[in-house]
Amino acid sequence: MIAPQKQMTGMLGHPVAENPIDRMFDAVYAHHGLNWQFWKNDIATEADLQLAVKALRPLGYRGMCITVPWKVAVIPLLDEVDDDVRAIGAANYMTIRDGRLVGHNNDGKGVVKAIAKVAPIAGQRVAMLGAGGAGRAMAMEIAWAGAAHLTLVTRREEQGREVADRVRRGSGVACEWQPWCAPVRLPPGTTMLMNATHLGCAPDLEPLPVDWDSVPAGCLAVDVITNPRITPFLRTARERGCPVVDGVEMLVQLAMQIFAEWTGIPPEEAVFQQAVAQALGEDPQAASTTADRTQRPATATLTP
Q1: Residues annotated as part of the active site
Q2: Which of 45, 60, 147, 183 is 20 to 30 A from 120, comparing alpha carbons?
Q3: pLDDT tens digits for range 158-180
Q4: How far apart are CA 282 and CA 279, in angstroms?
Q5: Is the pLDDT assigned to residue 303 strictly greater than 50?
Q6: Mean pLDDT over residues 212-240, rounded?
Q7: Same domain, 28 and 141
């Protein structure tokens, strides 16, 4: 008997080597008995991105995640995008059905679900470092979730102002740009500090240039980095008594949505948590909740 053809999914980005997403998805596919596989593809140039996207249909891919730096550049290469992509201006995954590449964005949705496990978003005054593909999605979704004010801190003024304007128009929430001047001082009254940059990612583990004297006690610290789970930024925040939300928790939340979209199978969070913990060399039995390891209880309150 001929085995059924393996269904291919994957990721396009640069760099991708340290991201545990492939091992997580492959473990989840195996758990459900699916003959599916996830491939990470390091795409270093925009010209190569165009070639890679064109190849997805003839290669028979079912879906593809998009990560830095291609979440904006990929949009013109798609056949269709959903309302979230139009509002945010970036796509973080696509579905491929009937030969059509359809772009979606759930970066921010994953972040919102991860944060909601620790503290309410409504009323937060947010400072976000970085406003690229992930950052712009996070900013919009956090604004939609009821944040009171956002400050986007970026090196590129044009990018920061463009995303701030998009957030204001798309949500009605006050959002402003602040230039990146290291060490970064937070605006007075900040209650949530978010890292939406690559700083802190393995193997370099670069520290985030934050002026910690400007970080209020109890400020919620949020990081998008998935490897390591506890970045230098989150380690410092935790040592200073801040509740933290790590990028692995965000990855789990958004990956469950992507899995359901691709396969039609309801996701089981415990399976995803154990799979990603194993991929990171952690104890899978300790992965049923990230809060036990890295966060304060969900009763954390805002600092005035």
Answers
A1: 71
A2: 183
A3: 999 999 999 999 999 999 999 99
A4: 7
A5: no
A6: 96
A7: no
Query: Cα–Cα distances in Å, from 296 out to 196, 222, 231, 238, 292?
Result: 21, 13, 17, 9, 8
CATH number at residue 52: 3.40.50.10860
CATH code of the domain covering residue 189: 3.40.50.720
User: Is residue 304 situated within a structural domain?
Assistant: no
pLDDT tens track for 14-57: 999 999 999 999 999 999 999 999 999 999 999 999 999 999 99
3-state SS, one letter per residue, for the chain: CCCCCCEEEEEEECCCCCCCHHHHHHHHHHHCCCCEEEEEEECCCHHHHHHHHHHHHHHCEEEEEECCCCCCCCHHHCCEECHHHHHHCCCCEEEEECCEEEEECCHHHHHHHHHHCCCCCCCCEEEEECCCHHHHHHHHHHHHCCCCEEEEEECCHHHHHHHHHHHHHHHCCEEEEEECCCCECCCCCCCEEEECCCCCCCCCCCCCCECHHHCCCCCEEEECCCCCCCCHHHHHHHHCCCCEECHHHHHHHHHHHHHHHHHCCCCCHHHHHHHHHHHCCCCHHHCCCCHHHHCCCCCCCCCC
* CB half-sphere exposure, 40, CA atoms < 13 A: 18
Looking at residue 88, its amino acid is I
Confirm if 188 and 158 have CB atoms less than 8 A apart: no
How many structural domains are present in the chain? 2
By the 10 Å C-beta count (0-12 exposed, 13-18 middle, 19+ buried), 8 is classed as middle
pTM assigned to the model: 0.87
Q: Which domain holds residue 60?
A: 7-105+251-286
Distance CA 65, CA 246 (A): 20
